[in-house]
Amino acid sequence: MAKLITNHDPYHIHKILGVSVLLHYLYRFALLFQYGTAFPAFESPQRAAAGVFLHAMLSWSSLLLPLPIKRNFTKPMIWPEFRLHSIAFASRHIVTTIVTLLDWWPNEEASILAHALARGLVLCGTVKAASFITDKWGNREQRTTNSMPYPSTVDPETERPVIKKQYMLSQFAATASCLLPDATLNFAPLLAIQMAPLMMTLVRKGKVTSFDYHRVYAISLYLGYVMVFFRLLYPADSILTKSVGLKTIFIISFPSSKLRRLMPAIYVWAINTLLSTIIYPLVLQNAIDSMMYNDHAARLLFWFVAVGCTWRQVFTYAPLFGYSIRFRRMGSSSNKPNGATKTVD
């Protein structure tokens, strides 16, 4: 079994940053559960931004470590394309969180176009960077999500496609969160983005299995949703549910729809930026807000969304934990995980 501590990181820079970042996540979740926000008002923006910048240092310091050139398709392990994608996507959330904390976005009321361009630059710039990385170091037919190895007990016909789709939808939601005017919501998806390479490293070193990777990754994806739900439903900030919660539902809808298949990813996010930063505030916000006659109605709607999202993920990720609670057609010949619940239509 490979050692966790090797001479590949002789000064332990990456490991020290990794431990610091894990502690920082715990600290932010503690603040969230106590105050309803990961970045409470009593904390100076500069101090909060410095904590978030630790995550950038962790991601970029991974370039100090050597990697095999070829991807291992039998186990979830880091390869060059994945590492660069992870850095790009983590940087997207780090930048948006810090800019929100320091109030560096162009003022939306003064210039809605400048605000839209700034948000679009971050999102579309990341899409272009990810595309360049794939062209240079990857393969468009064997992408990270669709070619990820799964344990053999997860049925390839009925269970893996649903898990892959949920991973994909979570990634869309993560990207959309960068369009929201709240640092906690910008920060929420970062846990899963940085947990994935950690678990892949542990798989490579023989400390965990492929099952463990998928389980922890699924949990970390859901914890991002927990951070969003808690932020928007915290009683002291009920007004946030109406002003931001409804916008959250709106901006996730377009990239999650089948329309995204009709155009390149950069067009999807350019359109979604336009919808969320210009069309929504100028045309739709008043109409949608008027449908929610008070904050309690908005909170009730978002509670339905939170419960529905949680239930969907329980169904989807159940096979990773040895259970299958989705309905199957009678007579299906697929193998079920040990301890799975046998169900029929």
From TrEMBL:
Spans traversing the lipid bilayer: 21-42, 48-67, 172-196, 216-234, 266-288, 300-323
Keywords: Membrane, Transmembrane, Transmembrane helix
Source organism superkingdom: Eukaryota
Official protein name in the record: Uncharacterized protein
